[in-house]
Amino acid sequence: MKILVVNCGSSSVKYQFIDMNGEKVLCKGLAERIGIEGGRLVHRVNNDKHVIERNMKDHEEALKLVLDVLVDPEIGVIKDLSEIDAVGHRVVHGAERFASSVLIDEEVMKALEENVHLAPLHNPPNILGIKAIQKLLPKVPNVGVFDTAFHQSMPKKAYLYALPYELYEKYRIRRYGFHGTSHRYVSKRAAEILGRDYYDFKVITCHLGNGASIAAVRHGKSIDTSMGFTPLEGLVMGTRCGDIDPAIVIYLQQNLGMSVEKVYDLLNKKSGMLGLTNNLSSDMRDIEDAAQSGNEIAQLALDIYVYRIAKYIGAYAAAMNGVDAIVFTAGVGENSPYVREKVCEYLGFLGVKIDKQLNDVKGVERIISTPDSKVAVLIVPTNEELVIARDTKYIVENKVKELKLF
Fold first, then answer.
1. Which of 13, 51, 42 is nearest to 136 (CA)?
2. Is 209 annotated as a binding residue?
3. According to its UniProt record, which residues of this chain constitute the active site (predicted)?
4. Phi and psi for 89 in degrees, rounded to 5?
């Protein structure tokens, strides 16, 4: 079975085409600047990179270009579109309606439309991508895999806010959590690497990228996670503020005269590491370089970033009454030995010890704790596309409506 995995952003389409016989990535790529001048498609086959400069007015046009490239006689990987057996879509927000991956039909599309208000930046392009594929490949089954689904196992004590209960009952205001597909993959992979039973295993997974979140996974289920009603809550991120006193929002509006839109833009796009470094950068590589060169504000930002991660790890170790493993993943988690080392320096109370030589790597799967560490520490490169492909394969082959996670 060959599966096309699609991840649609507001002005981009990221894709992978995977042969599930051996789980081999045949090609992958990114169509970017959709609806903007200077559009292009970057298509990769093995180590070969092909760039097609072309403006794309919408997601349908972008996906049409992707499909054309897949069957291109020179840079394609299949002879005919009939070789695409299914399409798996990353969908950011499934709310409470979806606790698992599902076969997309009219009922699911209606539910996705109803959830748009919960993820107004993410769900609309996800929906556009699904509709475009349905039009371009009308006979091919589509499966939705939700960022929020893995966290639907959280108990009420973890996901409810201390707000009037009717706000949850009427409007479903609660913690949802995100990056669930990544947390699910790396937590299970960590158990495999360590030879542990996933369903008798306590692991804290740290997805540290431009967006960042931590999850407490006990016995194969997410019991808590740092992102909340939206992806703004929790850790310090590239441009997002993470946890702040909610009264700051009111202060900004009343005392600085900021509109709702300006506050939203400030907290999501101008805060985090970008804001802390006085707009130096939101990229951890730039900030680490600046700190090493003596930039005090960059060093302070790094200290805050690391401190927040360590606090969450400590809290989740308490929430699970212990922890067997801690996993670092995503762009920063996989590629910053500095961040991993500094986080682990806070965790001596858990018996964490890392080997600095083993930690001095980027982008590899590896145990970096010492043999006598009471808690295993690992780097596990995330692979959300593979999870989406696996779920899609299972649903299509077994002809079921959904894949039960719990």
1. 13
2. yes
3. 147
4. -115, 130
d(CA 113, CA 141): 19
**Where in the sequence numbering do the catalytic residues fall?**
147
Which is nearest to 206 in space by CA: 301, 303, 335, 292? Answer: 335
107 is in an annotated binding site: no
Strands (DSSP E) along 24-148, which ranges? 24-32, 40-45, 48-53, 86-91, 101-103, 142-146
Amino acid (one-letter) located at 139? K
Dihedral Cα 325, 331, 336, 339, nearest 10 deg: -60
> What would the pLDDT profile of 148-192 be if each residue is shown by its tens digit?
999 999 999 999 999 999 999 999 999 999 999 999 999 999 999
Q: Mind listing the pLDDT tens digit for each residue in 113-157?
A: 887 877 777 788 899 999 999 999 999 999 999 999 999 999 999
Q: Is 210 annotated as a binding residue?
A: yes
Residue 72, burial from CB neighbour count under 10 angstroms (0-12, 13-18, 19+): middle
Per the annotation, does 331 bind a ligand? yes
Q: For residue 382, how many other CB atoms are within 10 A of its CB?
A: 24
User: Please, which residues have CB within 8 angstroms of residue 273's CB and are 6 or more apart in sequence?
Assistant: 236, 237, 238, 239, 281, 282, 284, 287, 301, 305
Whole-prediction pTM: 0.92
Specify the 3-state DSSP secondary structure of 76: coil
C-alpha 213/C-alpha 190 separation (Å) is: 17
* SS3 of residue 46 by DSSP: coil
pLDDT of 264 over the 70 cut: yes
The single-letter code of the amino acid at 65 is L
Please answer whether residues 278 and 312 qualify as being in contact, where contact means their C-beta atoms are separated by less than 8 angstroms. no
Q: Is there a binding annotation on residue 142?
A: no
Question: Domains in the chain, ordered, with CATH?
Answer: 2-146 (3.30.420.40), 197-384 (3.30.420.40)
SS3 224: strand
pLDDT band at 406 (very low <50, low <70, confident <90, very high): low
Tokens 């077994």: give the residue.
Answer: 398
